[in-house]
Write a structure and sequence with these properties.
By secondary structure, the protein is of the alpha+beta class. Helices cover about 25% and strands about 30% of the residues. The protein contains three helices and six strands; from the N terminus they run H-E-H-E-H-E-E-E-E. A four-stranded antiparallel sheet has the order 1-2-6-3, with helices on both faces. The longest helix has 11 residues. The chain starts with 7 loop residues before the first helix and ends in a 17-residue tail after the last strand.
């Protein structure tokens, strides 16, 4: 990927939360991947830079990023029909031998 200068404030808003499910746990153990819920307008380059910024103390290297746009489910509330919001999921490949730790997580300082 190209070295594109992205502001740190933007990068801190890209990653919303880790996404934990049975399938996400399975691919995490098998393929050394982690799944995140990200901003809907985030690009793969921004996601990679955000992961490496947030875990810079552990010197995490991202090798690949895949994104999926998840459509919101349609729900009924009695006679009213509603819809949940669409969201974006990112599957991040971590370099072999490295592991993301959520316990020693420290937020990056904005310069």
């Amino acid at each position: 990927m190209k070295n594109i200068k992205i502001e740190q404030e933007r990068l801190l808003k890209v990653i919303l939360a880790p996404y934990i499910s049975e399938k996400a746990t399975f691919i995490g153990e098998k393929n050394n991947q982690t799944v995140f819920r990200v901003a809907t307008d985030a690009t793969k380059t921004e996601i990679k830079a955000a992961i490496e910024l947030l875990w810079q103390e552990q010197k995490i290297e991202v090798t690949n990023v895949r994104t999926i746009n998840v459509r919101g489910k349609q729900k009924r509330f009695g006679r009213y029909v509603g819809r949940r919001s669409d969201w974006k999921k990112a599957i991040v490949d971590i370099k072999a031998g490295q592991e993301l730790s959520y316990t020693n997580f420290s937020s990056a300082e904005v310069k």
